[in-house]
């Protein structure tokens, strides 16, 4: 079977304001770090920085082009926010592999919320996240993802399933109908 790029973990899709607003409403990040694993051009981090009470926002992107654009976009965002008197949390966006970058470990260890757009991740990558990154999350930290990291029949004492958030039309760029988000919590 031929594997198309749009079916790989590197598929790019944007979360929109409706999705970010729902995450902010549902998960308290007051004074804690927001982490976006696979942050693309950084728009989710920028929205969280401006709209939430997070202490800082951290994102990391593997693909070259989105990571390159993120640097310029966050600079423009910060300049515009300063010019318009809009306060926001500090933002750090990196280019790299979230499974191999040591700065990810530091960010996750202070996180109140970790977001993963794992809509097209395969089971192997999801299990790597579960095994390598989720143990670093502080107790009570929330993880929001499209495809739950908790699998039936797979013993998991790291995360508990809290709820499913239903977000209406226009929440993401890759489909026009609503999406479901899994809210998991570090046990």
Could you explain how this protein is built, in words?
It is built from five helices and seven strands; from the N terminus they run αβαβαβαβαβββ. Helix 1 (17-26) packs across helix 2. With 187 residues, it is of the alpha/beta class. Helix 5 (123-133) links the parallel strand 4 (111-116) and strand 5 (142-145). The chain is globular and about 55 Å long. The longest helix is centred in the middle third of the chain and has 20 residues, at 64-83. It has a single domain (13-186), classed as Vaccinia Virus protein VP39 (Rossmann fold, 3-Layer(aba) Sandwich). It has helices at 17-26, 43-51, 64-83, 102-109, 123-133; strands at 33-37, 56-61, 91-95, 111-116, 142-145, 159-167, 179-186. The model is unreliable at 1-11 (pLDDT under 50).
Q: Report helical residue fraction.
A: 25-40%
Please summarize the sheet with the most strands. 7 strands, mixed
**In terms of per-residue confidence, which ranges show pLDDT below 50 for 5 or more consecutive residues?**
1-11
- Gross CATH architecture: 3-Layer(aba) Sandwich
Task: Give the strand content.
Answer: 15-25%
Q: What general form does the structure show? A: globular
Structural class, from secondary structure content?
Answer: alpha/beta
Mean pLDDT: 87
| End-to-end Cα distance | 39 Å
The tally of beta strands, per DSSP, is: 7
- Radius of gyration of CA atoms, rounded to a whole number: 16 Å
Features:
disordered N terminus, 31% helix, 7-stranded mixed beta sheet, globular, 5 helices, 187 residues, Rossmann fold
